[in-house]
């Protein structure tokens, strides 16, 4: 029996779960009425498995629902309390945001952006990032935000796939006191792309940049436009954005989210999970370049007219007290962060957070990876002072919003450190075996989602077939999440990590295939396999095994350096392995499949278990020796 924490906010809406269970379609139909629609929908769900259309016939706009609807009552209420890494700060009220978004929507129009066009956004965590996204949404353009830590080669693939007409970037961004030259990265990424008509450059870091005929400065453009632009009345299923994420193949997948269903999912989960009140100050530490930032920094808080803190920089800059300083300064009441960040804070002890006034906090959350129970307890005691419920929210880029979480805004249930608890109302989730049969309680299996849900991805951009195979082919008519999980005797879910070749490093998704194809693109390399091994702070870190081509004499230290550089240049620093091991061969099954499980065990110093399917056992002994010698 795991430990239970009886803490809650006293909310208890039992009917909502009952209604959701009896008919999930009417349940979501009711939830969609929380949004403002230009015209009502005719059908709640068209389900042509595995393609869903939610609220068919309804007309809606995401920018209208996050801005226009608040103007009467909240135009002076702060929407974004922005904290720059270098100590700059700025407040954007709902009125300010409304004006800036309309102006920027007019800028996009003046550059020829039309409904359905794609716009790539590569910006640091500055208010202009949500402004650009909401401006796209306002005119029906599809934004595709790329995390500002990705390299030119990664960006190039993504822009090529989405065929964006416009790219929005900054001269530079601040990261741990240094300037990251974002404009330079974009220049490199788009040099062969005729289809990119213009690059809009925000001057943030004021570093020197080269200006070409395609480039336009944000401030110049904003001076020449009016501050009024009506929101387009868009179909509910009109695409809102593409967000690229790593999968099991070498190419990132363009996850496509539509408007009406996605916003419904966000509106409801934000209320249920965070119990949001008008007086709250919400702070989600995610970068907008990832899905958590899209859903729970940009869309959900603004749909609710909430006030939130947005922080530009690294959580440990200039030192380990930065987060707690921000919580104290802005009197944050709801704090949503990652287990990786918490493990790092915990390592530096209680004294740092204890020297700040964190009494404004009333609810805590985590996302992105499993949280170790001891970290959960630290978060609960040291940060929440044993008075704040913790929500552990399981979801994915593909699900759009939370799918498993305790919901203090809805009900009070006992919390168990390390478990996400129950699925949200209106979704049905199971743990099944290889054949799709539900496994008994406390047995490891695959996590599947049984019904369509409103926040679900529409498809993969330009690749309906891949959408079907990746998510809907392993189990017919059920969504395969790619995670291992256990459901316990109380029906609580425990997520055990990825079941496929996707790595979670410090909460970020990295595809093994993407990384391996980058390594083998080095001329000296014949083969490579990467895997994740446990790390005290990051959850997992990457180790890479590399087999060189016959007769390669290049010095291994030089080669190792070249591979590290290549990975940083082609993917980004987040994909850098902790170790690279040069090995004579990789352990494979007789049918030629690399046994990553064995590599993971060797890398973590564990016993290697069953090797009966292995083609050549000597490969393992040699790799073990190499790993031992290097550590
Ligand atoms: C993992 C992030 C355990 C999981 C929102 C999932 C989690 C992947 C949790 C999606 C959690 C997310 N507990 N694991 N609370 N939340 N995950 O697309 O493996 O970046 O499949 O979305 O993160 O990662 P993504």
TrEMBL record:
Xref: Gene3D superfamilies: 3.30.300.30, N-terminal domain of ligase-like
GO terms assigned for molecular function: 3-hydroxypropionyl-CoA synthetase activity; acetate-CoA ligase activity; AMP binding; ATP binding
Entry's EC annotation: 6.2.1.1
Domain spans labelled Acetyl-coenzyme A synthetase N-terminal: 17-65
InterPro entries named among the record's database cross-references: Ac_CoA_lig (IPR011904), ACAS_N (IPR032387), AMP-bd_C (IPR025110), AMP-bd_C_sf (IPR045851), AMP-binding_CS (IPR020845), AMP-dep_synth/lig_dom (IPR000873), ANL_N_sf (IPR042099)
Enzyme class: ligase
Record's keyword annotation contains ATP-binding: yes
Keywords: ATP-binding, Ligase, Nucleotide-binding
Residue stretches making up the AMP-binding enzyme C-terminal domain: 514-593
Taxonomy, superkingdom: Archaea
Family per similarity comment: Belongs to the ATP-dependent AMP-binding enzyme family.
Protein name: Acetate--CoA ligase
